Fold this sequence. Notes:
Elements: H1 4-9, H2 25-36, E1 47-52, H3 55-64, H4 70-73, E2 76-82, H5 84-117, E3 121-125, H6 130-137, E4 144-152, H7 166-169
Antiparallel strand pairs: 1-2, 2-4, 3-4
Helix pairs in contact: 2-5, 3-6
Amino acid sequence: MWDFFATVRHRHSVRKYRKDMPVEREKLHAVLEMACAAPSAGDLQAYQIIVVSSQEERDALSRAAGNQEFLSEAPICLIFCTDPERSAQRYGERGTSLYTLQDTTIAAAYTQLAVVAAGMGSTWVGAFDEDEVKRILNIEPGKKPLAMLSVGYPAEVPEPTPRRHLNEIVKYH
């Protein structure tokens, strides 16, 4: 088992997936359990995760995301939706406008790391037609798709992208 630091360092956006290796149910279940283990405001988990394995729906999601073809190629696409009503019950407007976004984003980030720890790859997609994604997946009123993750076994290992230096990002007081 990789340690946390190795997992983070091996996370890269994967845009080519092996067609001969489907994602095993057990691995997908373990990854989704890690999403649900993510911290959330008041432990409310104010989000919903939609698992898409249908080729037809993945093709439609690819089109809704500006023809990002890797969404069609990956055997699984995960859609992370906010659930503002769940958060609003305890936190009112702040829950609706902020906490549900944070909860959903944290769950998606945990999922990306769990995917790497499980020996697979993913890519985070935030550029998509929200209304079209809602229509394709018949997403419940009130829920909002925030991020999509393509998930599968990498067909290639991308080169690491450059990162800003720590001193450009971190300020000590």
